[in-house]
Amino acid sequence: MIRRAFLLIAPALLGSLLFASDEPKPAEKKILLTFDTLPAMKPMGYWTPREISNMILRSLERSNIKAAGFVVAEKVEDDPTTFIVLEDWATRGHILGNQTFGNVDLNELSAEDFLHHAEDGQKPIWAAAKRFNFNFRYFRFPQLHEGNTAGKKKDVRNALRDGGYQIVPVTVKTSDYRFNRAFIEKQKAQGSTDELKSAYLKHVGEMLDHAEKQSTAVFEHQITQILWLHAGIATAFFLDDLINMLRERGYQFVSLPDALKDPAFKTAETYVGPLGLSFLDRVAATRNLPYDQNYGEIKDPEIEKLVGEE
């Protein structure tokens, strides 16, 4: 009787509830934060590599985000005290990957020479992994150059695969590193960095716009985005604001292993050439879809004026 009475007095409500239950939930937008050129990127101004790194780590900890950092081993060899930066990242549960020994450009080297740099690049990361027991076999191509000849691309990829490495792509390119010098100059002059911060966030937002549009064009849905940042002073100071902006855009933050579970990253791409394309544009090029070879570079004249020449 109760059940029948409910059906009699509220058929419209019941129908709406049944209909609502069949509606698809909105797709979750996911993003991974990655930081190249650990222990830190020059110019650094008044700060040490560990101070810059710790600013980044504190921002990540405040937001409970697990990120990935890619190490240029030569920086550690030149200043062994910076090995503590790798320990700081490892103890906080972030992943460390290999960016070669000297941050070398595959376009300018043979496959054999490049792989020597990759082998030497893993040494400080291996030392940290041995102590803190984490998987360090993740690789990031410097300048996102993955091979300007088919043979070179194949040889390097096969060697990395045989060595147990996973290549970590980039879907959202940025020129965040270009804000470092301008930030330092502003601080030296004891000026406000508010205008520079607004330009920084605008630039990253525009790069996200492009990546989201390209994701829909290439995959017909939003894949997990992998944001390309650098361990520089500007990103260190603006990271809290950037994280807030990403949240406002509806992003959930994921770890590197979770990001790479996205089936999109199993998609074959066959781009060969001199450009440092994002993963999305590499797949677009493979499928003869439009892509922007200058995507990731600052094009806004107003931002260019603020940033100036490197």
What is the beta-strand fraction? 5-15%
DSSP helix count? 14
Q: Major sheet: size, sense and barrel closure?
A: 5 strands, parallel
Portion of residues in helices? 40-55%
Question: Which term fits the overall shape?
Answer: globular
Order of helices and strands: HHEHEHHEHHEHEHHEHEHHH
**Strands, total number:** 7
Q: What would you say the CATH architecture is?
A: Alpha-Beta Barrel
Tell me, rounded to a whole number, the average pLDDT.
Answer: 90
N→C terminal distance? 78 Å
Question: What is CATH's topology name?
Answer: TIM Barrel
Uncertain runs are 1-26
Under the CATH scheme, which class?
Answer: Alpha Beta
Walkthrough of the structure:
- With 310 residues, the protein is of the alpha/beta class.
- It has one domain (27-307): Alpha-Beta Barrel (TIM Barrel), CATH 3.20.20.
- 50% of the residues lie in helices and 10% in strands.
- The chain has helices at residues 2-9, 11-22, 49-62, 73-78, 83-91, 111-121, 123-132, 150-162, 179-188, 194-219, 233-248, 256-259, 279-286, 301-307; strands at 29-38, 68-71, 95-98, 138-139, 166-167, 225-230, 251-253.
- Helix 3 (49-62) links the parallel strand 1 and strand 2.
- The longest helix is centred in the middle third of the chain and has 26 residues, at 194-219.
- The N and C termini lie far apart (78 Å).
